[in-house]
Amino acid sequence: MKKSFVYTFILIASLCFSLANAQNKISVTHLQCEMLNNPEGIDVLQPRLSWQIQSDVNDVQQTAYQILVASSLEKLNTNTADLWDSGTVATDVSVNVFYNGKPLENRKEAYWKVKVWTNKGEAKADEIAHFSMGILTYADWKSTRWIGYDKPSERDSISQFSRLSARYLRKEIDLKKQIKSAKVYIMGLGLYELYINGNKIGDQVLAPVPTDYTKNVKYNVFDVSSQLKEGKNTLGTILGNGRFFTMRQDYKPYKIKTFGMPKMAMILDVKYTDGTTETIKTDDTWKLTTDGPILSNNEYDGEEYDARKEMKGWSSNGFNDASWLNASLVQEPGGFFEAQMTPNMKIMGEVKPISIKATSSGTYILDMGQNMVGWLQLKVKGNRGDTITMKFAESLQEDGSLYIANLRDAQTTDRYTLNGEGEEVWEPRFVFHGFRFVEISGFKQKPNLDNFLGKVVYDEMKTTGTFDSSNETMNQIFKNAYWGIRGNYKGMPIDCPQRNERQPWLGDRTTGAYGESFIFNNQTLYAKWLDDIKNAQTQDGGIPDVAPAFWRYYGDGVTWPGTYITVADMLYQQFADTEVIKKQYPSMKKWMTYMEANYLVDDLMTKDKYGDWCVPPESLELIRSKDPARLTDGEVLSSAFYYNLLGIMKKFATVIEADKTDIAHYDDVAKRVKKAFNDKYLNVATNSYANNTVTANVLPLAFDMVPENYKEKVFQNMVHEVEVTKEGHISTGVIGTQFLMRTLTDFGRGDLAFKLASNKTYPSWGYMVENGATTIWELWNGNTADPTMNSQNHVMLLGDLLIWYYENMAGIKSNPETPGFKQIIMKPDFNAGLTYVNASYESIHGVIKSNWKKNKNDLQWDITIPSNTSAQVYLPTKQISEVQVNKQKLVKSSNIYNKVNDFIVVTLPSGNYRIIVK
Q1: How is 288-315 classified by DSSP, letter by letter?
Q2: Assigned CATH topology for domain 139-342
């Protein structure tokens, strides 16, 4: 038994803690391959299979499983597992089980199901799951031609503010036999929409996800069996610009990457009922026009659409395309072709506006009531040639007009020109906006709220977490975080959705990704992002600050590039993903070696670029503080962070059983860095580090760098800085805030963390709420700072706040010894300041719930522990006589409970429990 578990006990299943009169209803659900909801076209040769066990009886533990995988549904239905029969495997593992059958072949189907045995009986999955293999070799794409129109049209312009019209492509085909099945494999760059016989294929938007197209290009796969018919069919695509045709052409070429004009490659595989097949590929027989209704589409500047130029039936049979050009054969983008293993973006919700007001200039201001990301659907009647203009912004000036100074040179404007044919409904295809307010012009009569509907757009992923508490400020902060996080998921995590930036900055997500993982199932998004970072690594090992490296920022700091390692650690901790460590470890090691070789001097990491970014400045108009007393030495930041990363790399090396010399090296360097750090920066006279900023003290405390006999002294000094000097307010920037809330709580001052979380005065998260924020600001003083950097929808200042919400306030934490919530640590800080918390989190094993409430005479705590897991439950009492579990008292027996300091610690098996502590 591990030392950390000495004071726990295992509750025997036969004891009275099970729900009375429960029936053994056990089922297997949520069958997933590679954690994908729709695993079409995967290119993993040994995919991982997972499932959840659902039951209404307590203490259900899997004892064995059997997986059957077949090449057809018919075979699986007869239990003919021609691809893999795992046999009965005695184990409690139910997630990330590797397929271990026959080699999976190019473009072949696989159907699977699982049967499990538990200590309470056996269960079969009611569902049958399916996955299909993608195009596994470059040779299969070789005869497929990339097509497009590799120059601007007459109405386009290439400049700092480029205008480039959408490309429309079509191809009529003749399928002469009865169709059994058909699939499309498509790469449409920068963005595409696919049509067959006039119908759009799929509900994705802004597809595919962005990458550095010189490194890799993602293809999407669609089953189009039901869209095709015997005889004539028409394939059609619209190509938008996206990140491929970069918005700012001929502008800062030393910084901003450009990739070329929109282009596409596509394969349609058709299987006929007689067993024969046919393949249709893109070539120069396709027809193309740039003279369609989408005049321009630009992520920063908006979309312009002229309905008078609509080409009715362009993607259907019989359309007259005589005036269209033959598509040109164009150069492929350069990156390797890969199946997209993360979902596309979708319209994930709708927002109805709350008001519309006229301005003195004759325009109207529409208020959505919520800072959101996506676009506006327009409903309008008018005359042919009328143009409706919609300009987007996050806030208003005092005179009620749009505040656009913080957008920099982003135009954020959509224009729709009417065709005059009754009510017209339109929304853009290839842009997104970050906005709460919209300036509307062009209506001949006053528009009403029914003319507009907000569409919320982000990566298709499940919302997995809920949180509600007795403090309304904290609840609103949670809501603001929810809206900010999802709005900034765009096939990669971006910093902001509104100005001319929208870049995947690494430093914004160092611990942010960890907190986000409690609210959203972001596993595949961040696994993809780690590939982006790896692909952006320089040959000698450098990691950029932005990845994909659309902006060439290679600063060689630690705190930004180190996100590569901390995000991998999050995926391991929250999702038990060891494969991501195996895949990324060589590149991570290469970067660690690069930093050590170039910047480790006298055992201290000397290179830092950004400092403790965005500490609250001394003046409300400043973006960054100029007061040396508020700023933390960069060497302190980089050395402490590098020490922490050495510990994570040691863990990774252990998990994947890397060369033992790696572990020894990480240990050796860590010991040297720790000694040098304390020798130089620990002031034993003042019990502080460096210049005594909160960040300078919290990092060595959080990373266990402080000598044992100074820990409490340094902590108390830090508390004085927070509680007295800063009057109970935040004084940390992006770096310090990542560890502040948890460290305060771990050292016994959850009440001070609660004060920071619930404050309403500057600087605080609550100050944002009090000043009308509905997302999280970029700056603590985002309502007063210089407009060049005051985005009102950033997430970087959340730090570890959301982690603290779930792990310390709700008590939902994965035991580091058993990643993926196989064992849950449930230890809320009941005395921090809240009187109740209701929280839930859907882990990979199932839903965890923690609902507690402090009454006048007792604490009532309802918890749910998923089947096939257990939980260490910390009860805030020393007396077992004060505890009831499901209306029964604990028994005085050494194997029933144990005491840890001021807690009774119970290890409960899966199930539902009501705990009362008097």
Answers
A1: EES-SSEEEEETTTEEEEEGGG--TTTT
A2: Jelly Rolls (2.60.120)
